[in-house]
Amino acid sequence: MGRVQDKVVLITGGARGQGRSHAVRLAEEGADIILFDICGDVEHNDYALSTEHDLEEAGSEVEKTGRRAVTAVVDVRDRAALADALKSAVDELGKLDVVVANAGICPLGSDQPIDAFANAFDVDFVGVVNTVHVALPYLSAGASIITVGSVAGLLAEKAGPAASMGPNGSGGAGYNLAKQFIDKYTMALANQLAPKSIRVNVVHPTNVNTPMLHNESMYKMFRPDLEHPSLDDALLTFPMMQGMPIPYVEPEDISHGICYLASDESRYVTGLQLKVDAGATVKF
């Protein structure tokens, strides 16, 4: 216990899924948590996003560990709102040590308009850049910036632009491109901040057991042969993504990596692409 004792951590997309898991894990290890989430839906993203109730619950789970939580409803696409909310949170908690740029969406479907591409890219990449850049003035030597990419995005890049469309449509293409840009951005930023002893790393998960994975649009991507595939249908093909014979990893599996990169155990680790992917990248 105490691996991030008395650190202050900002997590975007913190109301549920991976973000909430990271928040609770880091709080259990001694951190105070700033939780931002949009708490509303984004156009062309078919599955429902978080609610204000979800954000309140996430904050309560952090506080149950004995640590402090500051929550705010913020859209990561709005840099001015992010800056205002972060200033207020830092004023309350006193400092900022770690940034986890986790917020993301994955709108899928072959018949989506180009707006789906724009929305996915704006949330998944521009939102990461906004989060990191408003946080930079508060960070000093020993701080850690962690971005969240995607193994699926990396694999789509290897397969080429045409493959990144497929049944995913415009939204899927925007998602894949955003995650590829996150990877490149993280490596470039790590080089810029290394002389300041601020570390920057990216975590690339495979399929994760969250609402982003469990919706009909995602099931259809894995089972395009069916008009309305169910979870049971998708479970037959989910394991094809990984080298290990599993359908997906759990949010906690990603949180373990986040905790390591947030802690001083990784004080000399920067520019790392941490792939929590059950062998997906080596398989393909």
Automatic annotation (TrEMBL):
UniProt keyword list: NAD, Oxidoreductase
Gene Ontology molecular function: oxidoreductase activity, acting on NAD(P)H, oxygen as acceptor
UniProt cross-references to InterPro entries, sorted A to Z: NAD(P)-bd_dom_sf (IPR036291), SDR_fam (IPR002347), SDR_subfam_1 (IPR023985)
Keyword DNA-binding listed: no
Ion transport keyword on record: no
Similarity field: Belongs to the short-chain dehydrogenases/reductases (SDR) family.
Protein name per the record: Carveol dehydrogenase
The organism of origin for this protein: Mycolicibacterium novocastrense
